[in-house]
Write a structure and sequence with these properties.
The protein is of the alpha+beta class. The protein contains one helix and four strands, in the order ββββα. 11% of the residues lie in helices and 21% in strands. The structure holds FE2/S2 (inorganic) cluster. The site of FE2/S2 (inorganic) cluster has 12 residues, from loops.
Length: 85
């Protein structure tokens, strides 16, 4: 299985609206991070499509290595440490 591209090594703050549908990019190739723009086409990746259950501010993963997609779980911190060495 291909690994997703690291879109960025920090999460993106997004404002979610209750009842609105979102498509979270899992491949890392979208130019509209953290959301899908269709660039996964032809790859094995598919977006995570979900409807927000409440209006809230959320932090979405852009390193694509979180264990809690689409939300940031802090994994990007270990990537930042690797690149700083
Ligand atoms: S562009 Fe990445 S999942 Fe669609």
């Amino acid at each position: 299985m291909d690994l997703p591209k690291v879109a960025d090594t920090c999460p993106k703050q997004v404002e979610l609206e209750a009842g609105k549908k979102y498509a979270y990019c899992t491949c890392g190739m979208s130019e509209n991070q953290p959301f899908c723009d269709g660039k996964h086409s032809g790859s094995e990746f598919t977006p995570i499509v979900f409807k927000a259950d409440e209006t809230k501010t959320a932090h979405f993963c852009q390193c694509k290595k979180t264990g809690n997609s689409p939300y940031c779980d802090g994994t990007h911190n270990s990537l930042n440490q690797q690149t700083e060495q």
